[in-house]
Amino acid sequence: MTVRQEIEDKLRAAFAPRDIEVVDDSASHAGHAGAPAAGQSHFNVMLRSSDFEGKNRVARHRAVHAALGAELIGRIHALALDLDV
Q1: With contact defined as beta carbons under 8 Å apart, do 32 and 26 qualify?
Q2: Degrees (nearest 5) of the Cα angle 12, 70, 42?
Q3: What is the pLDDT of residues 38-55, one digit of tens each?
Q4: Which residue, 4, 60, 66, 73, is most buried by CB atoms nearer than 10 A?
């Protein structure tokens, strides 16, 4: 399973989103410091879920990081989050 699929599966399970898109943007960062040659390190996530209602940006980001877990977060170099209700 790819890291992109792991991210999507964990976020779907945690938030039952009405809309989700996980994009592996690693190729755009090839050769940059911290970017592994194998890729699967830079991701853009767009997630819409009613679970975010009433939560500020920091609380939403913390919820996503908790849902992904420390092990998976540790394998990701960059994670851009676009989170809304």
Answers
A1: no
A2: 70
A3: 678 999 999 999 999 999
A4: 60
